[in-house]
Amino acid sequence: MSQQIRSIANHPPIRVIAITGCDGSGKSTLAASLVSHLSSQSSTELIYLGQSSGRIGQWIRSLPIIGAPFGRYLLAKSDRVHDRPASPPDNITTLVIYLLSHWRAYKFRRMLAKSQQGHLLITDRYPQAEVAGFRFDGPQLAKTVGGNCWVRALRKREQKLYQWMASYPPLLLIRLDIDEQTAHSRKHDHKIAALREKITVIPHLTFHGARILDLDGRKPASEILDESLRAIRASLSSSRV
User: Fold this and answer.
1) pLDDT at residue number 159
2) CATH fold of 14-50+103-240, please?
3) Which pTM was predicted?
4) Domain ranges of the chain
Protein backbone atom coordinates (compact mmCIF):
# COMPACT_ATOMS: atom_id res chain seq x y z
CA MET A 1 0.00 0.00 0.00
CA SER A 2 1.77 3.14 -1.22
CA GLN A 3 1.59 6.35 0.72
CA GLN A 4 2.10 9.86 -0.69
CA ILE A 5 3.52 12.75 1.32
CA ARG A 6 1.10 15.67 1.48
CA SER A 7 1.11 18.97 3.38
CA ILE A 8 4.53 18.26 4.88
CA ALA A 9 7.39 20.74 4.46
CA ASN A 10 10.32 19.57 2.37
CA HIS A 11 13.61 19.96 4.20
CA PRO A 12 17.15 20.03 2.80
CA PRO A 13 19.29 16.94 3.43
CA ILE A 14 20.41 16.61 7.03
CA ARG A 15 23.85 15.60 8.31
CA VAL A 16 22.97 11.92 8.40
CA ILE A 17 24.32 8.86 6.61
CA ALA A 18 21.56 6.26 6.56
CA ILE A 19 22.07 2.56 5.89
CA THR A 20 19.21 0.42 4.69
CA GLY A 21 18.66 -3.01 3.20
CA CYS A 22 17.23 -6.40 4.02
CA ASP A 23 18.18 -8.18 7.24
CA GLY A 24 21.43 -10.02 6.65
CA SER A 25 22.72 -7.50 4.09
CA GLY A 26 25.40 -6.21 6.47
CA LYS A 27 23.85 -2.98 7.75
CA SER A 28 25.03 -3.30 11.34
CA THR A 29 28.56 -4.30 10.33
CA LEU A 30 28.89 -1.37 7.94
CA ALA A 31 27.38 1.10 10.42
CA ALA A 32 29.84 0.13 13.16
CA SER A 33 32.80 0.30 10.76
CA LEU A 34 31.78 3.75 9.51
CA VAL A 35 31.52 5.13 13.04
CA SER A 36 34.93 3.69 13.86
CA HIS A 37 36.57 5.28 10.79
CA LEU A 38 34.78 8.64 10.83
CA SER A 39 35.00 9.34 14.57
CA SER A 40 38.64 10.37 14.24
CA GLN A 41 37.64 13.15 11.82
CA SER A 42 34.51 14.53 13.47
CA SER A 43 31.97 13.78 16.17
CA THR A 44 30.17 10.71 14.83
CA GLU A 45 27.44 8.64 16.46
CA LEU A 46 25.46 5.53 15.56
CA ILE A 47 21.67 5.58 15.99
CA TYR A 48 19.37 2.62 15.42
CA LEU A 49 16.15 3.86 13.78
CA GLY A 50 14.22 0.60 13.64
CA GLN A 51 10.98 0.46 15.62
CA SER A 52 12.66 -1.94 18.11
CA SER A 53 9.71 -4.32 18.40
CA GLY A 54 12.04 -7.31 18.49
CA ARG A 55 14.14 -5.87 21.31
CA ILE A 56 11.09 -4.72 23.24
CA GLY A 57 9.54 -8.15 22.75
CA GLN A 58 12.65 -9.81 24.17
CA TRP A 59 12.47 -7.53 27.22
CA ILE A 60 8.78 -8.32 27.76
CA ARG A 61 9.39 -12.06 27.48
CA SER A 62 12.12 -11.79 30.12
CA LEU A 63 9.68 -10.46 32.72
CA PRO A 64 8.78 -12.99 35.45
CA ILE A 65 5.51 -14.95 35.31
CA ILE A 66 3.59 -12.90 32.71
CA GLY A 67 6.50 -12.05 30.42
CA ALA A 68 6.65 -15.14 28.21
CA PRO A 69 2.89 -15.52 27.52
CA PHE A 70 2.40 -11.78 27.03
CA GLY A 71 5.40 -11.64 24.68
CA ARG A 72 3.95 -14.49 22.62
CA TYR A 73 0.59 -12.69 22.59
CA LEU A 74 2.10 -9.46 21.21
CA LEU A 75 4.18 -11.36 18.66
CA ALA A 76 1.06 -13.17 17.41
CA LYS A 77 -0.76 -9.83 17.16
CA SER A 78 2.11 -8.28 15.20
CA ASP A 79 2.30 -11.24 12.81
CA ARG A 80 -1.44 -10.98 12.24
CA VAL A 81 -1.09 -7.38 11.04
CA HIS A 82 1.69 -8.46 8.64
CA ASP A 83 -0.07 -11.55 7.33
CA ARG A 84 -3.72 -10.39 7.35
CA PRO A 85 -3.69 -6.67 6.51
CA ALA A 86 -7.28 -6.75 5.27
CA SER A 87 -8.49 -7.36 8.84
CA PRO A 88 -8.41 -4.21 11.02
CA PRO A 89 -6.34 -4.59 14.22
CA ASP A 90 -8.01 -4.55 17.61
CA ASN A 91 -7.57 -1.66 20.04
CA ILE A 92 -4.66 -3.17 21.97
CA THR A 93 -2.71 -4.07 18.83
CA THR A 94 -3.35 -0.63 17.39
CA LEU A 95 -2.06 1.06 20.54
CA VAL A 96 1.08 -1.10 20.66
CA ILE A 97 1.90 -0.35 17.02
CA TYR A 98 1.22 3.35 17.50
CA LEU A 99 3.51 3.51 20.55
CA LEU A 100 6.27 1.69 18.66
CA SER A 101 6.03 4.32 15.91
CA HIS A 102 6.24 7.09 18.50
CA TRP A 103 9.32 5.43 19.98
CA ARG A 104 10.91 5.55 16.52
CA ALA A 105 9.89 9.22 16.19
CA TYR A 106 11.48 9.96 19.58
CA LYS A 107 14.78 8.52 18.34
CA PHE A 108 14.38 10.49 15.11
CA ARG A 109 13.95 13.76 17.03
CA ARG A 110 17.10 12.99 19.03
CA MET A 111 18.90 12.39 15.75
CA LEU A 112 17.69 15.73 14.35
CA ALA A 113 18.86 17.59 17.44
CA LYS A 114 22.31 16.03 17.29
CA SER A 115 22.54 16.73 13.57
CA GLN A 116 21.70 20.40 14.12
CA GLN A 117 24.48 20.54 16.72
CA GLY A 118 26.99 19.55 14.02
CA HIS A 119 27.34 15.85 14.80
CA LEU A 120 27.55 13.33 11.96
CA LEU A 121 24.99 10.58 12.48
CA ILE A 122 25.16 7.08 11.06
CA THR A 123 21.77 5.40 11.19
CA ASP A 124 20.94 1.72 10.93
CA ARG A 125 17.65 1.92 8.92
CA TYR A 126 15.66 5.02 8.05
CA PRO A 127 11.89 5.74 8.13
CA GLN A 128 9.98 6.22 4.88
CA ALA A 129 6.36 6.96 3.95
CA GLU A 130 6.16 5.39 0.49
CA VAL A 131 5.25 1.81 1.37
CA ALA A 132 3.38 0.76 4.50
CA GLY A 133 4.76 -1.75 6.96
CA PHE A 134 7.38 -1.97 9.70
CA ARG A 135 9.25 -4.46 7.53
CA PHE A 136 10.10 -1.57 5.21
CA ASP A 137 10.44 1.07 7.97
CA GLY A 138 7.08 2.54 6.99
CA PRO A 139 3.82 3.15 8.92
CA GLN A 140 2.48 -0.20 10.11
CA LEU A 141 -1.17 0.74 10.67
CA ALA A 142 -1.38 1.94 7.07
CA LYS A 143 -1.14 -1.72 6.02
CA THR A 144 -4.61 -2.27 7.43
CA VAL A 145 -8.04 -1.02 6.40
CA GLY A 146 -11.22 -0.26 8.32
CA GLY A 147 -11.60 -0.48 12.06
CA ASN A 148 -13.39 1.63 14.63
CA CYS A 149 -12.93 5.37 15.18
CA TRP A 150 -9.99 4.76 17.55
CA VAL A 151 -8.15 2.60 15.01
CA ARG A 152 -8.79 5.00 12.14
CA ALA A 153 -7.65 8.02 14.18
CA LEU A 154 -4.38 6.40 15.25
CA ARG A 155 -3.77 5.14 11.71
CA LYS A 156 -4.05 8.70 10.42
CA ARG A 157 -1.80 10.08 13.16
CA GLU A 158 0.84 7.42 12.55
CA GLN A 159 0.79 8.12 8.82
CA LYS A 160 1.41 11.83 9.41
CA LEU A 161 4.25 10.95 11.78
CA TYR A 162 6.03 8.98 9.07
CA GLN A 163 5.37 11.67 6.49
CA TRP A 164 7.04 14.16 8.82
CA MET A 165 10.10 11.93 9.34
CA ALA A 166 10.39 11.19 5.63
CA SER A 167 10.44 14.92 4.86
CA TYR A 168 14.01 15.03 6.29
CA PRO A 169 16.12 13.15 3.71
CA PRO A 170 19.60 12.03 4.79
CA LEU A 171 22.69 13.49 3.17
CA LEU A 172 23.43 10.03 1.77
CA LEU A 173 21.54 6.76 1.96
CA ILE A 174 23.58 3.59 1.49
CA ARG A 175 21.40 0.71 0.32
CA LEU A 176 22.81 -2.79 0.57
CA ASP A 177 21.53 -5.36 -1.89
CA ILE A 178 21.39 -9.07 -1.03
CA ASP A 179 19.75 -12.24 -2.31
CA GLU A 180 17.34 -14.21 -0.14
CA GLN A 181 19.56 -17.30 0.17
CA THR A 182 22.52 -15.30 1.46
CA ALA A 183 20.29 -13.24 3.73
CA HIS A 184 18.71 -16.37 5.22
CA SER A 185 22.09 -18.03 5.71
CA ARG A 186 23.10 -15.02 7.83
CA LYS A 187 19.73 -14.66 9.60
CA HIS A 188 18.49 -18.20 10.30
CA ASP A 189 15.81 -16.97 12.71
CA HIS A 190 14.07 -14.83 10.07
CA LYS A 191 11.27 -16.15 7.88
CA ILE A 192 12.48 -16.47 4.31
CA ALA A 193 9.15 -15.09 3.04
CA ALA A 194 9.71 -11.89 5.03
CA LEU A 195 13.27 -11.58 3.71
CA ARG A 196 12.02 -12.10 0.16
CA GLU A 197 9.42 -9.36 0.62
CA LYS A 198 12.03 -6.88 1.86
CA ILE A 199 14.40 -7.73 -0.99
CA THR A 200 11.58 -7.07 -3.46
CA VAL A 201 10.38 -3.75 -2.00
CA ILE A 202 13.41 -1.92 -0.57
CA PRO A 203 15.27 -1.37 -3.89
CA HIS A 204 12.31 0.65 -5.20
CA LEU A 205 12.08 3.12 -2.30
CA THR A 206 13.24 6.68 -3.06
CA PHE A 207 13.41 7.95 0.54
CA HIS A 208 11.93 11.28 -0.49
CA GLY A 209 14.54 12.01 -3.13
CA ALA A 210 17.61 11.24 -1.03
CA ARG A 211 20.93 10.60 -2.74
CA ILE A 212 21.27 6.80 -2.78
CA LEU A 213 24.38 4.66 -3.10
CA ASP A 214 23.50 1.08 -4.02
CA LEU A 215 26.08 -1.53 -3.02
CA ASP A 216 26.23 -5.30 -3.22
CA GLY A 217 26.02 -6.69 0.32
CA ARG A 218 27.70 -9.91 -0.81
CA LYS A 219 31.01 -8.17 -1.48
CA PRO A 220 33.79 -8.26 1.15
CA ALA A 221 33.07 -5.94 4.06
CA SER A 222 36.31 -4.02 3.47
CA GLU A 223 35.30 -3.27 -0.13
CA ILE A 224 31.84 -2.09 0.91
CA LEU A 225 33.41 0.13 3.58
CA ASP A 226 35.86 1.73 1.13
CA GLU A 227 33.12 2.52 -1.41
CA SER A 228 30.93 3.94 1.35
CA LEU A 229 33.67 6.16 2.74
CA ARG A 230 34.43 7.60 -0.70
CA ALA A 231 30.77 8.45 -1.25
CA ILE A 232 30.40 9.94 2.24
CA ARG A 233 33.44 12.19 1.82
CA ALA A 234 32.11 13.38 -1.54
CA SER A 235 28.69 14.09 -0.03
CA LEU A 236 30.16 15.97 2.92
CA SER A 237 32.36 18.05 0.61
CA SER A 238 29.50 18.98 -1.71
CA SER A 239 27.27 19.92 1.25
CA ARG A 240 29.81 22.59 2.30
CA VAL A 241 29.79 24.27 -1.10
Assistant:
1) 96
2) Rossmann fold (3.40.50)
3) 0.85
4) 14-50+103-240
